[in-house]
Structure formats: structure tokens, C-alpha cells
Amino acid sequence: MPTYISLLNWTQDGIRKVKDSPKRLDAGKKAFKKLGVEFKAFYMTMGRYDMVCVLEAPDSRSAAKAILSLAAEGNISSETLTAFTEDEYRKIIGSM
User: Is residue 89 part of a domain?
Assistant: First the structure.
């Protein structure tokens, strides 16, 4: 399955309710699972982004639907990247 890396920031509403963030993460994981999207890793980070999630999804549409559904709740904003494994990277570069 394709891998996606989501870079997340709390919105003003999200940081105001930061103590509820673990509950929102658990709910998000369950909602994503129903859409066929799996959380492979979650990190709270310091710097430009507040959180980083590594996700696997069947396709870009599924990943987009999951992330947009989460962002629509108003607690986070996101930037999502398609990620390639080292093997995929080597195949892509090798085919050039």
C-alpha cells in the first residue's frame, strides 16, 4: 500500500483544547481504519510542525478523504506527502 507522511499543526481551536488531543487521535485512528487507512506511526514534534503521522492507504483518494475528514473538524491543518520506500526510490531512479 502507498505510504503518506502528514505534517500537522494544531489550529487555534486545536491548541485551546490540546488536553483532548489524545482522545481525538484515538478517534481519528478508528475513523481512518474504517476508510482503509492505517496509522503506521505518530509523533509529536517540536519545530515547524506539531505532529507527524505516517499512514498507509490503498490510494491517494482514500488518504485525501481521511485527512480532509480529520482537518474538517477544525483542530488541525495538514500537509501530506506521498512517500516512497528505499526500494521504490531505487527503482524510480534506476528506470531513468
Answer: no
Range of the domain at 20: 3-79
pLDDT at 20: 95
**Pick from 55, 50, 64: nearest CA to 10:** 50
Confidence of residue 50 (pLDDT cuts 50, 70, 90): very high
Q: How far apart are CA 75 and CA 24, in angstroms?
A: 9
* Secondary structure (3-state) at 79: strand
Give backbone dihedrals phi and psi of 88, rounded to 5 degrees, phi first. Answer: -60, -45
Residue 39 and residue 32 in contact, taking contact as beta carbons nearer than 8 Å: yes
Of 73, 27, 79, the residue nearest 52 (C-alpha): 79
Supply the pTM of this predicted model.
0.90
